[in-house]
Structures are given as structure tokens and as C-alpha cells.
Amino acid sequence: MLVRLLSSRCTSMVMQALCLLAASGAVSAGSGDFPSYRNLAAQVEALAEQSGISLVGLSRLEDVPAKPVTGTSSQQLSELLGAYNYVMAENKLIVLGKKRWVPPPPRDTILKTRRAGRHHVVDVTLLGLGKTELRTALMIDTGASVIVLPMSMADGLGLSQDALADRMVQTAKGKVQAKFGVLTAVRLGNQKIADVEVAFIQDALLGANGLLGMNVLGLYRMTLDDQRDQLTLTPRD
After folding, report:
1. Which one, of 158, 115, 159, lies nearest residue 139 by Cα?
2. Looking at the DSSP assignment, which residues form a beta bridge with residue 111?
3. pLDDT digits (tens, 9 = 90+) for 196-216
4. Is residue 56 within 8 Å of 93, Cβ to Cβ?
5. Fold designation for 109-235
6. Exposed/middle/buried for 231, CB within 10 Å: 0-12, 13-18, 19+?
7. What is the value of pTM for the model shown?
């Protein structure tokens, strides 16, 4: 009876989709132009199902109320997850957790660098999941869009390789397979940057050093003093 009643009211393709969701239990009848979802998790799940996207970490959204959004499925998901760290790769969406607020950092930070051939290397502290913390040296690389680390570091940062998103990336040696996740924070001297995307590449392909990319360096006006082996970071206004 319920399916027959719903079907009689589905007068357009959009209404048919909503009716099917209601029949499956993801949506309950509500007032206004938007369906009423149990919570944000049910809303995201319905959108992902429409787009053929698999989900990981959906339980992190169960205590959050749903909210009306408009636009394409991709635009709606982006707005719904605006307060969360997540990774989208191909047909997989991984919800990593709520974004953390970090107070604005102080002004100029001056860091001593070391040489690796013609390149500069700087010490950083990486904060992973579950209060994991790892101090390492990264090569300053303005050609890298994100921080790049050897795959062997993932477990030490509390990032399960099964929960990372697969993506192809372009390197100096050509295209290689990488796994993407999000670090809780990165510390550079007295600077702390929260929620930093990271790519993991097989150790043999990366070489001796990880890369400090533009998702961190691009937050600053950067001065690299080649004679003094010194990196100055000034936060952008």
C-alpha cells in the first residue's frame, strides 16, 4: 500500500527519486520543499547512493542534524561536509572527523634549513590521528601541491592504509599511485597548521625525503635565504 501510494504521487523524475528514498526508510515525510532525514548521516548516505559513491566513516555524522541544501549532488555533499575533514577520490568518500579550530599563529617564523644536494630540508612535526606525533625532515618543494610522505609513515601517524583514498599523482618520474588522507596538524617552528592533506607514496618511488608542499607553504609569504640556509614564513593576511 505504501509503495502504491508513493508511486501515485511521483509526477517527475526528482519526485520519483525522493519517493524511492522514502520507501527505503532513508527519508521520512516532512513539510516544505526538502525531505526530512533522521540525521546528517542519513542525508549524506542518500546523496551518495544517488551518485553511486561508497562511504567510509559515516558514523561520525550520526549525532548531527540534517539541513536543507540545494544544487547538484556534489555541491550538496560539499556544503553538508563543510565542517568536516573528508577525502573524495573517484567513487569513494571518506569522512575523517570534524575540523579543529586553531588560534591564529604568531607572525614571522624563521627556520634553519639543511642541504640535500641543491635542495633545502627543514624539520617539521606531523600530528596524526589518536594523538600520534612524528618529527621528521621534509624537502621544501614548491612544485608539490601537498605534503608527500613515504608509505611507511602512514601507520606511525595512525592512518590506516585501508581508510586512505587512492589517487594518481604526477611526479618527476611520471604518474604514480598515491594514497591520500588528512593529518590533524603540522608544526613548523611556532606555526601550527590544522587539517593538512597528505599523500603517501611507496618508499622506493619517493627517495630519501618526504616533500613539504604548497598546501602548507602557500599559506605564507616565503623567503628562502640560500646563503644563510634559512626559511622565513610570514602568514598571509
Report:
1. 115
2. 231
3. 999 999 998 887 679 999 999
4. yes
5. Cathepsin D, subunit A; domain 1 (2.40.70)
6. buried
7. 0.60
* Enclosing H/E stretch for 216: helix 214-217
- Which cell is 114 given? 639543511
Cα separation, 215 vs 186, whole angstroms: 11
* Whole-angstrom distance, CA of residue 60 vs CA of residue 70: 23
| Least confidently predicted of 53-67, 141-155, 186-200 | 53-67
Which cell numbers in the block locate residue 198?
597528505
DSSP state of 163: G
CA–CA dist 60, 53 (Å, integer): 17
- For residue 148, the one-letter residue type is V
Please, what is the end-to-end C-alpha distance for the chain in angstroms?
61
Q: Which ranges in the chain are annotated with CATH 2.40.70.10?
A: 109-235
Distance from C-alpha of 57 to C-alpha of 76, rounded to nearest angstrom: 18
